[in-house]
């Protein structure tokens, strides 16, 4: 996985019930799907079950491009997408974009 975004409802502070995950391999997708499809979220006293769907935006660079101009990058860090860099710590997307811009100067 190299990208994760869990959209928040800012009025309640809860997530909206879906997320964007970019997996780096087909095998990782299959393992995740097998482990989580139909799973209940008992911790939250919800009857909802996990459903896995392919997003219309596919790929790390495509997700970066999509969210790069989003107002979400101006929100607090806990509300932003997270980028996972090979061999490094997870980075908040706005900070990742700044470091990316600086490395291309």
Briefly summarize what is shown:
The chain has helices at residues 26-36, 60-68, 93-103; strands at 3-5, 20-22, 82-84, 90-92.
Outline the structure in words.
The chain has helices at residues 26-36, 60-68, 93-103, and strands at residues 3-5, 20-22, 82-84, 90-92. With 105 residues, it is an alpha+beta fold. Strands 2-1-3-4 form a 4-stranded antiparallel beta sheet. The two termini are 28 Å apart. The mean pLDDT is 91.
Write the layout of secondary structure elements.
Blueprint (H helix, E strand, L loop, with lengths): L2 E3 L14 E3 L3 H11 L23 H9 L13 E3 L5 E3 H11 L2
Antiparallel strand pairs: 1-2, 1-3, 3-4
Helix content: 25-40%
Give me the secondary-structure category: alpha+beta
**Gyration radius, rounded:** 15 Å
From N to C, what is the helix and strand string?
Answer: EEHHEEH
For the biggest β-sheet, the strand order reads: 2-1-3-4
The rounded distance between the terminal residues' Cα atoms is 28 Å
């Amino acid at each position: 996985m190299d990208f994760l975004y869990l959209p928040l409802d800012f009025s309640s502070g809860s997530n909206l019930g879906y997320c964007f995950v970019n997996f780096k391999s087909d095998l990782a997708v299959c393992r995740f799907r097998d482990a989580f499809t139909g799973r209940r979220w008992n911790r939250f006293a919800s009857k909802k079950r996990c459903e896995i769907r392919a997003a219309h935006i596919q790929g790390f660079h495509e997700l970066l491009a999509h969210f790069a101009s989003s107002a979400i990058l101006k929100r607090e860090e806990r509300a932003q997408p997270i980028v996972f860099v090979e061999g490094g710590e997870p980075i908040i997307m706005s900070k990742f974009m700044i470091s990316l811009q600086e490395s291309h100067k």
